[in-house]
Amino acid sequence: MSRLIVFCLFALAFAPVAHASDQAGLGAKLYAKHCRECHGPTARESEVGDIGGLSLGTVTSAVRAGPGMMPTFALTSEEIAAITAYLARLSRS
């Protein structure tokens, strides 16, 4: 019984890390498809500057409203969150 408890606690401890990694992986694919052409491979090469550390709210607003010359994109909230996770990973590297 104690082995089962230890296993469950161990699995729970690493579940968010795995989810964040999966989310950033999806975000990388979505970024390459929708964002890379204008914002560059590291999200630092655009006229608006470094977008790597933007909040979920800021990314959501930009994707849905398309500020300036940026087009809008029909992405789900989950897809926008994945792009934001990827941008956060880029800003740390």
From TrEMBL:
Keywords noted in UniProt: Heme, Iron, Metal-binding, Signal
Listed PROSITE patterns: CYTC
Span of the signal peptide: 1-20
GO molecular function: electron transfer activity; heme binding; metal ion binding
Cytochrome c domain residues: 22-91
InterPro entries per record: Cyt_c-like_dom (IPR009056), Cyt_c-like_dom_sf (IPR036909)
Name of this protein: Cytochrome c domain-containing protein
Lineage, opening ranks: Bacteria, Pseudomonadati, Pseudomonadota, Alphaproteobacteria, Hyphomicrobiales
